[in-house]
Design brief:
By secondary structure, this protein is of the alpha/beta class. Helices cover 28% and strands 23% of the residues.
Length: 509
């Protein structure tokens, strides 16, 4: 059940009641955002706006798809690893287990283990993308004076923003080295439209595309960096772009694993890059080395408008698309938004990765209201004094995604890391502020975080809400109240005969 295209996925969503078509005209400016906020808050479906109203009042012939990954269920449904679609967040943990193996495979303990690993190794190798000569995404090719970004139904998300914003662009770049032909990076970066053939490429310095750009300049290249922006790829390829893929693995190759079949790629018409053949729209061009423009202010996932900063300009050299393309769009704002839902889903992918390095961790939770990654709650099996602080340091440094996590709260294994009531009880009863708070200054911080004293540089805090061991404390540690186990079992047996409301689940862990 592999989704070769976004359309394949939409057909499944519509059959399952997870997609609704709206024939009523809806403005791309602000109205789509307002509708999406209400759908997200209520776990609503993906929506296909069939009559987007452009800024000049005309109806665009290109429908807009929004709220595609507005629930964890739909994120899971987008993964068809081994040909089987997922439907729950827990099932996404299989993706994390695969990534953990690919990052650091466990040596086989014998011939039997080696034989069991062989099919997985063969599957990984078999997912190298294949190249095709003709592709649906190149049914229409626009060059020169035909190029017009303003003809696309690009969403204007929040009041006061300077221009429409491309929000779901899957940006393809390649490193300057010829050692690896598949050294492609797929990243999702927003792009402010400047005119018919120009936009601003807003990427942060630590992201793959920005690193390719920096290496390109450092290598002394005089020509601008080739770049392609894919709008509306299949779900496996989109999700591969937001997953921490090992650097030794092509992201297109991992996309093949996520979708359960090889990615089909086609060479771009004007730049030396490969793009998904079944995509809806592709913007081809170059990121200029010597042209920068002020970007913003735009509403961001923090729930605030970001500050205005300069980023490089993307010059469009061609637009290719299907004859009847679909434009994929979203917005970012205070959670819930699609990035926070994706973060909640990918949380399950991160757990096997982080447990591979720190097996004492029993759960890892990025609360959606923490703007996807700014707060992490970790439960662990404590084994020695100071253990919680080691785990804090490990979480901050292990995956690139967590370098911007400001708050880490560490609790014992018997605390539910995903229940704020449980976590706050641990914080209030197991912590002494002076002893159990670790503050680290002058660390990397998301430049969008205006709460930090310097742009891109700020502090982090770790809360040790675990039981304290000698010599962490000199006092006798308290004993937690717990009902006698025999009484718990007795009431379990009695419950159905008591005629009381509720399912009678005991509160004891």
């Amino acid at each position: 059940m592999a989704y070769k295209s976004l359309r394949d996925f939409l057909a499944t969503l519509e059959a399952d009641g997870e997609l609704v078509r709206v024939s009523e005209p809806v403005s791309t400016h602000l109205e789509m955002t307002e509708i999406q906020t209400r759908l997200l808050r209520n776990g609503g479906p993906a929506v296909l706006f069939e009559k987007p109203v452009m800024p000049d009042g005309s109806i665009s012939p290109i429908p807009c798809l929004a709220n595609l990954f507005g629930t964890v269920k739909r994120v899971a449904m987008g993964v068809t690893l081994e040909g089987k679609a997922r439907t729950t967040a827990g099932e996404l943990r299989e993706v994390g287990e695969l990534l953990a193996f690919l990052r650091n495979p466990t040596p086989p303990r014998g011939l039997g283990d080696a034989m069991e690993m062989l099919p997985l190794a063969q599957t990984v190798m078999s997912m190298r993308p294949k190249t095709v000569k003709k592709a649906p995404v190149q049914e229409v090719v626009l060059k020169g004076d035909q190029i017009d970004l303003t003809a696309l139904p690009i969403q204007g998300c929040w009041p006061g923003e300077p221009a429409p914003l491309i929000t779901w662009g899957l940006v393809v770049t390649k490193g300057p080295s010829d050692e690896r032909e598949d050294d492609f990076n797929l990243g999702i970066y927003r792009m402010q439209v400047l005119g018919k053939d120009k936009a601003i490429m807003r990427w942060l310095a630590h992201r793959g595309g920005a690193q390719h750009y920096a290496r390109h300049k450092k290598a002394g290249k005089r020509e601008p960096l080739p770049c392609a922006v894919v709008l509306g790829a299949d779900p496996g390829t989109i999700l591969a772009a937001v997953t921490p893929v090992p650097e030794t693995l092509s992201e297109y190759q991992f996309a093949g694993l996520m979708r359960g079949s090889k990615a089909e790629l086609v060479p771009c018409k004007t730049v030396p890059l490969m793009v998904p053949a079944q995509a809806e729209i592709v913007l081809e061009g170059h990121v200029l080395l010597d042209e920068f423009e002020d970007e913003g202010p735009y509403g961001d996932h923090t729930g605030y408008y970001n500050s205005v900063e300069k980023f490089p300009v993307f010059q469009v050299t061609a637009i290719t698309m299907r004859k009847d393309p679909i434009y994929l769009t979203t917005f970012t704002g205070r959670p819930p938004d699609e990035p926070s839902v994706l973060g909640e889903a990918l949380n399950e992918v991160f757990i096997p990765l982080i447990r591979q390095q720190f097996p004492e961790i029993t759960d890892f939770w990025l609360p959606p209201e923490g703007c996807s990654y700014r707060i992490a709650v970790v439960s662990m099996k404590k084994a020695y004094p100071g253990h919680a602080k080691r785990v804090m340091m490990g979480c901050w440094s292990y995956l690139r995604q967590f370098m911007y996590t400001k708050w880490i709260i560490v609790v014992d294994d018997d605390i539910n890391a995903r229940d704020w009531k449980d976590v706050m009880w641990a914080v209030s009863t197991k912590m002494d502020p002076a002893r159990d708070i670790t503050v680290i200054e002058n660390t990397p911080i998301d430049y969008l975080d205006f709460a930090s004293p310097e742009s891109g540089l700020g502090s982090k805090i770790g809360l040790d809400a675990t039981d304290k061991w000698e010599p962490e404390t000199k006092r006798e540690w308290g004993e937690e109240i717990r009902m006698d186990e025999a009484v718990v079992e007795r009431v379990n047996d009695l419950w159905d005969r008591l005629g009381l409301p509720g399912d009678g689940t005991p509160i004891w862990k």
